[in-house]
Amino acid sequence: MPRAKSNESTGETSRECIDKMITAGDPSMQAEVLSRLKKIEGQVRGVHKMVQDCRDCGDIVIQLTAIKAAVNRVGATVLACHLADKIKSDLSQNNDINASLNEFMSIFKKFS
């Protein structure tokens, strides 16, 4: 098995750094994503009310931009968890990670 590269600033190997990555099954990550989604849900309800109340279109667009940014942050978090899960799985099974990276890039392209 190839030797893991060392991170000079912390002295950790790349395998140790990957082991510390937060994955999708992590309860704190799940709680964070659910909390963010709840906030987004509230923002969407707020925009819905703004439209019903015939509020200024510029104000609505500003809120929609904030919602879009929040959704992108959640998506990036979920993508990072997915990648960490795949890399951990590949490393634990001594698999080549290239197939997982290709799959990740395919998903990333759909997201972006």
Q: What can you tell me about this protein's structure?
A:
Keywords: DNA-binding. One of its GO terms (molecular function) is DNA binding. One of its GO terms (biological process) is negative regulation of DNA-templated transcription. InterPro entries: Metal_Tscrpt_repr, Metal_Tscrpt_repr_sf. This is DNA-binding transcriptional regulator, FrmR family. Helix 2 runs antiparallel to helix 3. The protein starts with 13 loop residues before the first helix and ends with a helix. It has four helices and no strands. The relative contact order is 0.12. The chain is elongated. The longest helix is centred in the middle third of the chain and has 36 residues, at about 55-90. Helix content is about 75%, strand content about 0%. The chain is an all-alpha fold and about 110 residues long. It has a single domain (about 25-110), classed as Metal-sensitive repressor, helix protomer (Methane Monooxygenase Hydroxylase, Chain G, domain 1, Up-down Bundle).
Fill in the keyword field for this structure:
mainly alpha, DNA-binding transcriptional regulator, FrmR family, Metal_Tscrpt_repr_sf, metal ion binding, single chain, about 110 residues, DNA-binding
